[in-house]
Structures are given as structure tokens and as C-alpha cells.
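#struct-help
A.M.: can someone run this one for me? Single chain, 119 residues.
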Amino acid sequence: QQQQQQQHLTGFILFCVVMKGLFDNVLSDYLWARAIILTSATVATVGLGLTIPLALLSDAYVMKTNIWSAYGIFGAVSVLTGFVFVNIGELYEEEEEVRNNDGYEGTVRCINTPEKLKA
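D.P.: on it. C-alpha cells below:
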């Protein structure tokens, strides 16, 4: 019976499983790492939470059912609001490269004031 089940694994099915694995894991991890490089770890990680409101919208569009509830809308709005606040907070932070007298090089996170941002 085990041999009979393995006969149903065609090349096309194996190809689909490998492609799904590549897109689900490799591509998503690569894009997340790229987002960390382009923004910051905090913004990239909180940005992953945007899948919650996007899933709500895609369920409404694809399933064509009434999935709207007060809890769902509250959760989606909460996630979006949190993402906006994190991005506003990151706007006031800046990394500066520093070098001390011993030749040590590194980065320091500085808090910008709104006046500094206008300049």
C-alpha cells in the first residue's frame, strides 16, 4: 500500500511542492531580511503584522462572504495604527557612524527633534 501511494507523486506535483516551499519560505525570508536592511528590524517585524488586515481584505474579496465583524475591523485598525506609530517613532531616530580615539568604529542611534528634521 505504501508503494501504491508513492506512485501518485508525479513530477508536476513534486514541482508544485518545491515551488510552494521556495515562495513560502525562501522568498518571504529574503524579502523580510531586505526590509530590515532598508528600514529597521522594528519596522520590518511590525510590518509583518500587516498581513492581518490584508488577510481580512483578501477573505472578503476572494470568499465573497460577509466576514466583517466589530472584532475583525477593530483588530485590523489596531494593527494599521500600530504600524503608523512605529514608523513615526522611527522617523525621529537616526543612526550615525562614530569613531572614537581608539579607532573603534560603530553606529549610534540618535533621537532627532522635529526642528532637526526640518533643517
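A.M.: thanks! The longest strand covers residues 93-99.
D.P.: also worth noting: The chain has a mean pLDDT of 77.
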